Amino acid sequence: MATAAKVIKCKAAVAWEPNKPLVIEEIEVAPPQANEIRIKIVATAVCHTDLHQLLENTHEDCFPTVLGHEAAGIVESVGPGVTEYKPGDKVIPLFIAQCRECRFCKSPRTNQCDKAWGKKVLQFSGTSTFSEYTVVDQMAVAKIDPAAPLDKVCLIGCGICTGYGAAVNTAKVEPGSTCAVFGLGAVGLAAVMGCKAAGAKRIIAVDINPEKAEKAKVFGATDFVNPKDHSKPISQVLSEMTDGGVDFSLECVGSVAVMRSALESCVKGWGVSVIVGWTDLEDFSARPLQLIAGRTWKGSVFGGFKGRDDVPGMVKAYMDKKLKVDEFITHNMTLDQVNDAIELMKHGKCIRTVLNVSPQ
């Protein structure tokens, strides 16, 4: 391409300081260095983790930054040493890298990777997709089907994999089981979808927003419970509904109080509760007897998926109509409207807003 090996001046939404609106600025994106890829971002979505960074992270050394990590785009150019990707490839940037060489990448038990995210300056999660162009390390890129619509499959870059995989890969939901999913944003709805795909017989969706009930059923929920409708703790309500508790629970809110409720909603003996919601602000706690009685409490990031290996398969599942994606998208906007998209998410008025950054 004509821009290869040159600095590109482009538009980006910059977070200059915490809890302030993003500012559309012209930034300079350097050419990719060794083992790096420069990507033209076609579409990116606003995820709650972006809000966490903007609204709850007060460390000044984290700003200024270009947020965004749930995206899809087209390779513009590659640096020396890159052989797996070429200009024109459709790709999804990965906030969990996969070097395929470290002890974590070589283990089937985790999707963690020992290698760093790469350049930190003005980058968030090693991706920074609220920009027309971004540079990422080749180990943090998944090449996908060239026919995939990027304004849809961008959601596979975070929310859908995170929730779906938490049910299928981390919890290992079993056929005929009973599940509860706490929090019905994109991640929670994807977890509901994962529970259904795994063959769960009963899927109880839990949220304090009654407007989420119908959406949850689209993805496979059999029941909806609003904790505000009950005077008892939600764990007691679920225990009474399920003869002692659910087999699997997934916390998709990022609240330590809800994490505890999700654990306590599990049946003793074999119940498994998975922490999916992102937070690092508070310690979480539970009574030791909850675990002594046989429950398992575990965490999940990006649904346990190894990005470079597994994301192309998730895109294929969508293309084969085996995975819902379109149903998550409630709004489409432009990069210039990023602050409107953030307000929608802050007030629970959307599932996912896709920002159309560049033409496909």
Structure description:
The chain is α/β, with parallel strands linked by helices and 360 residues long. Helices cover 25% and strands 23% of the residues. It is built from ten helices and 16 strands. Strands 3, 5, 6, 7, 8, 15 and 16 form a seven-stranded mixed β-sheet that branches. It has a six-stranded parallel β-sheet with strand order 11-10-9-12-13-14, sandwiched between helices. A three-stranded antiparallel β-sheet has the order 2-1-4, with no helix packed on it. Helix 3 (159-171) packs across helix 4 (186-197). The longest helix is centred in the middle third of the chain and has 13 residues, at 159-171.
Tally of DSSP helical segments: 10
Distance between the termini: 15 Å
Listing every helix as H and every strand as E from the N terminus to the C terminus, the arrangement reads: EEEHEEEEEHHEHEHEHEHEHEHEHE
Query: Helix coverage percent of residues?
Result: 10-25%
- Low-confidence runs of at least 5 consecutive residues: none
Give the amount of beta strand, in percent: 15-25%
Rg over C-alpha atoms, rounded to the nearest angstrom: 20 Å
Shape field: globular
Question: Tally of extended strands?
Answer: 16
Structural class: alpha/beta
Concise synopsis of the structure shown:
GO terms for molecular function: S-(hydroxymethyl)glutathione dehydrogenase [NAD(P)+] activity; zinc ion binding. Belongs to the zinc-containing alcohol dehydrogenase family. It contains ten helices and 16 strands.
